[in-house]
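User: Hey, quick favor. My workstation is busy. Could you predict this chain's structure for me?
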Amino acid sequence: MRVQTLAVAAVAFNAFAWGVSWWPFRALDGLGLHALWATASIYALALVVLTFVRPKAWRLLAKHPGLWGLCAASGITNMGFNWGIATGDVVRVVLCFYLMPMWSMLLAWAWLGNRPTRLSIVQLGLALTGVALVMWPIESGGTAAKPLGLPEALGLMGGLSFAVTNLLLRQLRETPSEGRSLAMFLGGTAFSGLLAVVLGLVGVVAWPPATGGPWLFGLLALAVFYLSANLTLQFGAARLTSRVTALVLLTEVVFASTSSILLGASDLTARIAVGGLFILAAAAFASVASVASVASVASGANGNDAK
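Assistant: No problem, here it is.
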């Protein structure tokens, strides 16, 4: 029980870290460092630290090929989410990201052959209704405003890849933690860094400012913060089911929406609020159903043991 409590607390801390992450990324962007460069730099620093502390971790990539999938999924997650919250309406991007339970259901169907139940179809309907409300809010004048844009698309992509990340973390729970960390740090560095270079060459993303600027200190502090958040997610996700992890991670929406609205980074309308409730309800129902199923199985097992 104590381990489960610690696992939930660890995932909640990760949710807090990601929920307020929009602020430091926007602060760094204001200092001239694009979110892609910031993401690549943060994970590169973490990668250097891990290599220094656990140099043998690199051998695990060859020993456990599944880590390469984790590398890709984690890299796309960080690239999409960080870029999205740094440039778009924070609440809308986070809500798009939290269609993750819907992706988990569809992935389980396609990947594991788990056909969706009637309840799952209802949950999918709730999620899609919610995203429709969030993506096409109607202003008082009756015209559509803020349709799906790049930040929201990045949020959707990040949510899909994060669902894959959680599934892989569960499958790789027996793999040494330094191997999982290395894969995630490598993915965050490679995917964001390569895209930043490509977009920099075509003039879409500005190159980093001169070394030694005020952004450097913020970048170092953010790297330490996210290193801690990454480690806590691994600890928690490896000890909880993917849907329980998803339920706890929903607190990120609370952290993100509260902080962004108070600091003026989001416009919360009644329509977006209702859409958000639909999305959160779908995610919560999926997680609660999973917990109830696990509890039922455990109860049956205990009964059989008593007999």
